[in-house]
Structure formats: structure tokens, C-alpha cells
Amino acid sequence: MVGLLSAGALAAMLHAEAAAHQAAAGWSYGVECCSSLDCFQAPPGAIAETPLGYRVESTGELIPYADSRIKRSRDEFFHRCSPGGDNGAKRSICLYVPDRGF
After folding, report:
1. The pTM is what?
2. What DSSP designation does 6 have?
3. Is 97 in contact with 72 (CB distance < 8 Å)?
4. pLDDT digit string, tens, across residues 41-81
5. Which residues, in sequence order, are CB contacts of 96 under 8 Å at separation 6+?
6. Residue 81, CA distances (Å) to 4, 30, 51, 61, 101 in order
7. Helices and strands (H and E) in the chain: how many
8. Domain limits, the chain
């Protein structure tokens, strides 16, 4: 019948929706940050460090250093998660920050 899915097809579809997608370096973005299309490696210069937190240059959004949306990047790049992966979105879902060598 049209519209019916096998249990296996349904399980595979649900798993695909629950699984986070990966950064170019091969590590996975957290499911709390990503719906398989929301996260991307930020272009060079897109994220600035200020005395109060990280500023998203394209929108002016300031994410304080203690904000729970800040996650550890597993490579040397910033990665931003925004609705639909839109670099111009006014609010970030998460910001992955590389180790700063402190």
C-alpha cells in the first residue's frame, strides 16, 4: 500500500533524522545543535573574540563566553549552527570554538 513504511525503513529514517551531520574534518556536530543542515564551518574572519564573548560578524550577535551554546570544536576552525544553516540568521543555535592554546 502507498504511504506505508516497513519497520526497517521507518527505523532508518528516524535514525537519519536523529543523527547529527559531520564537519569536513569528520567529527559530528551534536544533535542539540544540528538537524542535519544547520551547522557549517565559519569562513575566516566570521567570528571575532571580544572582551564580552564571540561576535558573529555577519549579524553582530554576541555570544557570551559562558553561554551554553558554546561547544568545543574538534578542529582548528569555528563552526556555527543557525536555523537552516543560514549565515545571515540573527541567532545561533550553537557555536563550536577551537582550542585557543591556553
Report:
1. 0.77
2. -
3. yes
4. 999 999 999 999 999 999 999 999 999 999 999 999 999 99
5. 23, 29, 33, 39, 71, 72, 73, 74, 78, 79, 80, 81
6. 34, 10, 22, 13, 23
7. 1, 7
8. 7-97
